């Protein structure tokens, strides 16, 4: 059954997600902050809107964007490194004011495993988040505000490190030396898996839930990035030797496995 879906943030994940949803017969509205990208989104079959969230207001035709939507997918990063964006929480509060006046009944918020901070051991959706970065703290605050809202039901996906076409940490780590934490375990997820998780939530109406999205493959950073560098014929990064005790820190989609029967299928590449 087709749905009318809005994607707030048509970037690296949002645009291919929209393309996949359209191919399955859904009607998609999408936003960008850049005027020059409107035609690009239109060519992809997306009904484009130029929307920008600020601490004072939501700029753009947010009313028409939200009109007649069954589902809204919020896929915008906190962007706290940019001095012009300001508080992510305050920007989302302005969006909430608009949402409370709309007829949107279901919301999917793309969050991050950074909300768990330095929690050690195996992490599941039942693990209490303990964010240590400002980005993680504000993401958790936004999660809480969305989940407590009574005008719509919210599902949270906490993705690990995103990898896929033209996006992989080894491109930034290649050739670097003196890197720490080489014995830590990686927690990554491929773009294809992100899309599959979101589509499964929409298909089966998994609302009011929290899901971790991380591929169940957790080698050490040292081993993984060395192998990835060699595979791409790049200079491997050099990690400092560590005598620290290795603690398993695997964040996996345990709840999602139960609900979706081995949802994650693509190979991390």
UniProtKB/TrEMBL annotation:
Coiled coil: none
Domain (NAD-dependent epimerase/dehydratase): residue spans on this chain: 88-169
SUPFAM superfamilies: NAD(P)-binding Rossmann-fold domains (SSF51735)
Superkingdom, taxonomy of origin: Bacteria
One Pfam short name: Epimerase
Protein name per Swiss-Prot or TrEMBL: NAD-dependent epimerase/dehydratase family protein
Source species: Croceitalea rosinachiae
């Amino acid at each position: 059954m087709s749905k009318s879906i809005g994607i707030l943030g048509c970037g690296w994940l949002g645009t291919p997600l929209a393309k996949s949803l359209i191919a399955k017969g859904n009607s998609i509205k999408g936003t960008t902050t850049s005027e020059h990208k409107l035609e690009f989104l239109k060519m992809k079959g997306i009904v484009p809107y130029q929307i920008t969230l600020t601490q004072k207001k939501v700029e753009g035709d947010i009313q028409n964007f939200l009109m007649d939507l069954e589902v809204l997918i919020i896929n915008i990063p906190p962007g706290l490194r940019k001095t012009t964006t300001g508080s992510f929480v305050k920007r989302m509060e302005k969006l909430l004011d608009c949402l409370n006046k709309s007829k949107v009944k279901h919301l999917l918020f793309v969050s991050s495993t950074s909300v768990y901070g330095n929690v050690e051991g195996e992490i599941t959706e039942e693990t209490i988040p303990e964010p240590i970065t400002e980005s993680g703290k504000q993401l958790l605050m936004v999660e809480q505000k969305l989940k407590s809202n009574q005008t719509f039901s919210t599902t949270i996906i906490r993705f690990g490190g995103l990898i896929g076409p033209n996006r992989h940490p080894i491109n930034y780590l290649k050739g670097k030396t003196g890197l720490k934490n080489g014995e830590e375990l990686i927690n990554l997820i491929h773009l294809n898996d992100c899309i599959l998780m979101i589509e499964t939530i929409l298909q089966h109406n998994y609302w009011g839930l929290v899901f971790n999205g991380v591929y169940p493959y957790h080698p050490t950073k040292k081993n993984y990035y060395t192998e990835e560098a060699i595979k791409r014929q790049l200079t491997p990064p050099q990690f400092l030797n560590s005598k620290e005790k290795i603690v398993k820190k695997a964040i996996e989609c345990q709840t999602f496995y139960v609900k979706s029967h081995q949802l994650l299928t693509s190979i991390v590449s």
